[in-house]
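Appendix B. Raw example, untouched.
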Amino acid sequence: MTDERGIRRAASTPGAAAGTVPLRMTPLAPGEPAPWFTCRTRRNEHYAFDTVAGRHVVLCFFGSAAHPAAARVLSEVARHRSRFDDRDVCFFGVSVDPEDETGERVSDAIPGIRYFWDFDRSVSALYGAARGNDVYQPLTYLLDPALRILAVLPVCAAGEGHVPALLELLDRLPAIPPPHPAAAQAPVLVLPRVFEPELCRALVNHYIARGGEDSGFMRDIGGKTVPIIEYGHKRRRDCAIADEELRRACAVRIYHRVVPETEKAFQFRATRMERYILACYDSAEGGHFRPHRDNTTKGTAHRRFAVSLFLNTGEYTGGYLRFPEFGSALYTAPVGGAVVFSCSLLHEATAVTRGRRYMFLPFLYDEAARRIREENSRFLESGRRDV
């Protein structure tokens, strides 16, 4: 599989027809963006869900308050209503039973607790709770302030233990900081929970099993874009991902968890991904990459956004990203998290001073950039595509 097939196709289920999107028959997964929707509440005919960003959000698809399990969950939520203050955390229940409204089985408790009337089940279907007219799986999503999935909690048949488990998760969340003047920062996204820790470990093991080769950088010389090895500028070893399932696992997560956030932040919809490589910055070799930009040669001019995905944060010292045009701040991400930024930004990977820093390092681009890539392919050395 190469990036020429497009990231959406690479991320699709094997055997699925090109251009089709599978129905949401399972819950959303941690790291995915919560779908936006508009739905009716008691006070608002067209409540725009995306406007609740900026706090942690509990979104509970309980189905019908007439169901004993749902009634237990909602009773427990009401008992702990002080936890839902609209500043740090808010609660939204989703009902698909019209009698919950007409019979006033549930009611808003402002601030903090509101209910959506999803009587056509469209919102429930969007989140994988409603699977046709006959199947409804009650569940609760916990969302971060950027409206990305933090956790998914199914509601058991009796509803027992659901709210205590939710409260335990809330207890571990960092408090929302009070308003404060902004510090200067680079225009980058720091996205946690893109890859699961298990996938990160599998990728690191894949690298260790295969080993890496010296990785250079590109320069235009004599009318051609050619790779240069110069240890004073860059010291890193790379390994192409040879396992098709690992490649697809990476594509699925980039497509569902990074592409939507890049579109939201930068109004850029990536359709293609270049490079399925793993990189290692080894302190024993002084691993580093001096300040550079990723799209300054003919062979790299198509690149639009870089993704630096951290596979083993905490197992090494140093190895930060820095964007000198925007100050001296150092950027990193937790295990499985990514820093996403425009390829035109000057950036460097600071030296790793202890241990080994493992990374997944693709580039994202779109169909207009694909045409640039195809046009400029004549400037690359013969047969070289994955630069």
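End of appendix B.
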